[in-house]
Design goal:
5-stranded mixed β-sheet, 14 strands, alpha+beta, 470 residues, rod-shaped
Length: 470
């Protein structure tokens, strides 16, 4: 909702909606109450007119004696008492010619409509609102009188509607004053209620803005302890801040570790070039420097490629989807592992292989398995063995890479999957950049799978990749 192109505040929108709904409710109630009051008053008037007409009919004052003067009218007043107050009557023949009338009419005649005459011919009374020649509005009852089954006269009893209309007008004036007043008071109350209800939200917003602006993600929004929706919102924001704090810490650590990994080969490369330029060298010495520099450049290239790959899969970018036969991928990884094992004196053997297929990127999955095999070969002393197997159960494929290496402390079971983490081991020469397992986990997660490790120091390790079957 906007006003002149500017979005309205939530409390303003709540107040407007509340006021609009209340206005509709008050309008409906006012219309219904006015209609009910008018209907009730008219019903009371009709009942009173019918009472007077029945008395005239039952007491015999509807005969010719009624024309004799004011005596019969005075008798009616004595019989009816206040019920006869401000009412007047008229007696007419079936053709509508006046036979007698109340002195209050002062020579005026009450109109007899065609509808009332037709109803009287059928023996039915008629209630109607008519206007006298003087402009006065009157509620009128026309009651047929029969003698021996024949229609002899019509009794018409009326009452002016001036007092009734005045009463209804005053009630309408009261509604026209009270409804806007109640609406204004309700709007003011709505503003106060909306402000009080949204005050905790404003406090949360200020706290969250202060936290994000000051980069102090360790702060948290204070819970009110009411257990309501606002407390649930605060808990959600605190959980989000905790995740952000962890992510920022991970990013800072990742950036520092990456800078450290890049600095070492760059420092070596710079030192070799500077030494080579300090004095004239032979072509053989320049060749040695260039060869060493090329090795450092290749190391930097591999590190950059690993960082790009880790960044791609850590962002949970969906990999290309196609059907991948895992047994074929496992065979390729096994061939790579055999070559790596021969160089280290480690036997790489195939285990049980169950044909299985998944949806994903074959090259990325091959990279994840090769990283596990490479890691297993590196941390397995000469004479040890590494085994690859593939199983299927519960709608998942399980790729298992087990070794008889130096093992991992169970307390470090999750840290090994973090980037640039290298544990203190009896085989420091095996350490790389510390990205292999992190890349493998990112690839597996991007394929909707999980990776676990079971290990003990000195008893080898078992890494298992679980992937949903296609």
């Amino acid at each position: 909702m906007k006003r002149w192109g500017v979005p309205l505040a939530v409390r303003t929108r709540l107040t407007l909606w509340y006021t609009a709904i209340l206005f509709v409710m008050l309008l409906v109630v006012s219309v219904l109450s006015y209609s009910r009051l008018r209907w009730t008053i008219m019903q009371d008037l009709d009942t009173s007119l019918l009472t007077v007409a029945q008395v005239i009919h039952d007491t015999g004052y509807s005969g010719a004696d009624l024309a004799a003067g004011a005596g019969p009218e005075m008798a009616l007043r004595q019989i009816l008492g206040p019920e006869f107050y401000d009412k007047f009557f008229q007696l007419v023949d079936p053709e509508g010619h006046p036979a007698a009338r109340s002195t209050q009419l002062r020579g005026r005649a009450l109109p007899l409509s065609a509808a009332a005459r037709a109803d009287a011919a059928r023996g039915v009374r008629t209630f109607e609102t008519v206007r006298l020649p003087t402009g006065e509005r009157v509620r009128l009852l026309t009651l047929p009188i029969t003698r021996g089954g024949q229609l002899t006269h019509l009794v018409q009893v009326g009452i002016p509607l001036e007092r009734t209309e005045h009463t209804l007008a005053r009630y309408l004036e009261s509604l026209l004053v009270l409804v806007p007043l109640g609406l204004a008071l309700a709007a003011a109350g709505g503003v106060i209620i909306a402000r009080a209800a949204l005050q905790p939200v404003d406090a949360m917003s200020r706290t969250a803005r202060r936290i994000t602006t000051g980069a102090d993600l360790a702060q948290r929004i204070v819970l009110r302890g009411t257990g309501d929706e606002l407390d649930h919102l605060a808990e959600t924001l605190n959980a989000m801040l905790a995740r952000l704090e962890g992510l920022f810490a991970q990013m800072r650590r990742f950036a520092a570790d990456a800078a450290h990994e890049l600095r070492t080969p760059l420092t070596v490369l710079k030192g070799e070039v500077e030494v080579a330029l300090r004095a004239e060298r032979s072509s053989e010495e320049y060749r040695r420097v260039l060869t060493s520099s090329l090795e450092e450049v290749e190391r930097l290239t591999r590190l950059a490629e690993d960082l790009l790959l880790l960044s791609r899969f850590a962002a949970r970018t969906p990999p290309p989807r196609s059907r991948v036969e895992l047994d074929a991928v496992l065979v390729d990884a096994f061939d790579v592992g055999v070559r790596l094992g021969q160089a280290q004196g480690v036997a790489v053997r195939p285990g049980e292989v169950c044909p299985a297929a998944v949806e994903g990127d074959a090259a990325a999955l091959r990279r994840a398995i090769v990283n596990l095999v490479d890691n297993a070969v590196k941390y397995t002393p000469a004479g040890g063995k590494v085994e690859l197997s593939l199983g299927c159960a519960d709608g998942r494929a399980a790729i298992v890479v087990s070794d008889t290496g130096i093992g991992i402390d169970p307390a470090d079971g999750q840290r090994v999957f973090e980037p640039f983490v290298r544990l203190d081991t009896p085989m420091p020469e095996a350490g790389g950049a510390g990205l292999g397992l992190a890349i493998a986990r990112s690839i597996v997660r991007a394929h909707g799978g999980t990776i676990t490790v079971e290990s003990r120091l000195g008893a080898g390790s078992t890494f298992t990749i679980y992937l949903p079957l296609a």
